[in-house]
Design brief:
eight-stranded mixed sheet; 10 helices
């Protein structure tokens, strides 16, 4: 990590911060989940940096990136990523996203297909639209904003203690970046949740590149259900699916080695093409 580059690039009207490992390539761009930051991928990056040039973005409102009051739709987040790829002259790249970051990755693949050669999704926020979804989303957005504000009144030690209690199976290596991310995130990112109202099929239909979907245990706090997996396989015929049965929503943090194997095998298959 000491030799990783830390820098900013202007994209879509704001400064996006990233860490870059500078490996021999190919390039793997990583998009973190809601209230995380780019360094939350550190454990994965350390395992893969010998063979890949890994770019860990701080999404807008997160980490050290710009924190505008507005502009947190899926299209905004995707335009940020596309701007980074273009500004750094990277493309086409492989993209791996988690949760909301996986939604961003899907939108990049749909709107900017020329920038991707492969797409990997860790439990994306794929839900079918519910009744009164907009009303529920507004209430959730308000609640999450308040939750972020309250959490940021705690010390780093208190945030870490809460994290260790809630996620007892996580490797200790996960917590430093996770705690830092909770301190850095802007409450305005809660606006993102107002856009998660269940139109994932429309965006997924436009995916053209090889895709890997990684899911966890339906009995835990995962988002993607077996029914959604089946629907996605019809929408994205080239999609591969790996289920890691003992993991919840934070799949890589709860089933690290199987997750790493699935990602590595998929990327190896892309390189062999």
């Amino acid at each position: 990590m000491d030799n990783w580059q830390s820098a900013w690039v202007e994209s879509n009207g704001i400064n996006i911060h990233y860490h870059r490992t500078g490996g021999p390539g190919p390039i793997l761009l990583l998009i973190h989940g809601f209230t995380d930051n780019g360094l939350c991928w550190s454990r994965v990056a350390r395992q893969l940096e010998a063979n890949y040039d890994m770019l860990m973005l701080d999404s807008r409102g997160h980490g050290l990136s710009g924190k505008p009051e507005k502009g947190y739709s899926g299209n905004d987040l995707a335009a940020d990523v596309a701007g980074v790829v273009e500004a750094l002259n990277l493309g086409p790249v492989m993209i791996l996203g988690h949760s909301v970051g996986a939604l961003t990755a899907v939108t990049v693949a749909a709107k900017y297909p020329e920038l991707l050669c492969g797409l990997m999704l860790e439990d994306p926020i794929w839900r079918n639209k519910e009744k009164d979804a907009s009303k529920k989303s507004a209430a959730m957005t308000k609640a999450i904003r308040q939750q972020i504000v309250i959490q940021q009144q705690l010390s780093a030690q208190q945030i870490e203690a809460s994290g260790r209690e809630n996620y007892p199976t996580w490797d200790p290596e996960e917590f430093p970046a996770w705690v830092q991310a909770k301190q850095q995130v802007s409450p305005d990112v809660a606006e993102t949740l107002s856009f998660l109202i269940g139109n994932w099929q429309e965006v997924a239909t436009a995916i053209q590149c090889p895709t890997l979907l990684i899911t966890g245990d339906p009995g835990k706090d995962v988002v993607v259900s077996p029914a959604i997996v089946a629907e996605a396989q019809l929408i994205i015929p080239q999609m591969q699916h790996v289920n890691l049965a003992h993991a919840g929503h934070n799949i890589r943090r709860e089933s690290f080695q199987p997750y790493l194997s699935a990602v590595s095998q998929f990327m190896d298959s892309l390189i062999a093409i």
